Amino acid sequence: MQNSIEVVNELLVNLFNDILTIEKAALENGPFNDLTITELHVIEAIGLTPRTMTEVASQLGITVGTLTTTINRIVKKEYVLRNHAQDDRRFVIITLTQKGKLAHRLHESFHETMVKSIVNEISEEDNTILIESLKRLTDFFREQYDITK
Fold this sequence. Notes:
Layout: H1 2-28, H2 37-46, E1 51-52, H3 53-60, H4 64-76, E2 80-84, E3 92-96, H5 98-119, H6 124-144
Antiparallel strand pairs: 1-3, 2-3
C-alpha cells in the first residue's frame, strides 16, 4: 500500500508540473507570449460570453480583489474589456476582445490536442478506465476539500 501511495503521489505531482511546463513553453513560443499562465487561465475562465467579475473569481476560487489585479494587466494588454452592468452599476462585466477570443481559442485548441494525443494512444478499455478513475479522483478532491464547481 505504501508503495502505491508513493507512486500515485509522484505521478500526480509530476503530471501537474509537466502540464504547467508544457503550457508555459507553448505560451512563450506562441503568438501570445506577452501573457502569463495566470493571465491565460483568467482568459480561459472568462470564456467567450460576458461574465461578471464575481462569477469568474468564484470559478477560479479567488477573491474579486485578486482577480482585479490580473484583469488590470490584461485590460492594458488589450485582451479584455471591463464595463459596468447597465442595469446595476455595482457589477463589473468582463468580456474578451477579439485578441482575447483568439488567445482563448488557441489555448482551447492546445488542450484539445494534448488530450487527443493521450486518448488516441490507448485502447477503448483503457480510455474508459482512465475516465472513470479521473472522475472518481475529481469527486474525491472536490468532496475532501469542499470544492464546488
